[in-house]
Design goal:
Elements: H1 3-48, E1 55-60, E2 63-68, H2 69-132
Helix pairs in contact: 1-2
Length: 133
């Protein structure tokens, strides 16, 4: 096997393993964000049904702060938008990784085809020389 091909295959394997790990990690993060987003949506839905003058408690770290319904729903909408942006960003990153992986596989295929055609032309050239003798 050609040294250049061997090097390309090992690079491809390493890159594929790394990309697969990154894709799985992005999938897990995306799933977690979707769950968090859904939780915020449900909470927001329930809180919006309350009377506007109702006092509610907003979670801040490990404590709760007295708040009103309007500010709590605004805060939850902001969280929801942040989750959506992060999910979109993770999806874009995943698409980029998949595209990169596909391009690398295609370039490796081209290299293999090129080496095959080179070796075939060399063999045809040696066969032609044998026929002349």
């Amino acid at each position: 096997m050609d040294i250049e091909l061997k090097k390309a295959f090992t690079e491809m394997q390493v890159n594929k393993i790394e990309s697969t790990k990154k894709i799985r990690l992005l999938d897990m993060k995306t799933d977690n964000l979707k769950v968090s987003k859904q939780r915020v949506e449900l909470t927001n839905k329930e809180v919006s049904q309350l009377q506007p003058d109702t006092k509610v408690y907003a979670s801040v770290g490990r404590m709760f702060v007295l708040s009103d319904v309007l500010s709590l729903t605004d805060e939850m909408k902001m969280k929801q938008n942040n989750f959506e942006e992060m999910i979109n960003q993770y999806e874009k990153n995943k698409e980029f990784l998949l595209k990169n992986l596909k391009e690398q596989e295609d370039s490796l295929r081209e290299l293999v085809q090129q080496k095959r055609s080179e070796s075939a032309s060399k063999e045809n050239g040696t066969d032609a020389k044998k026929g002349e003798n």
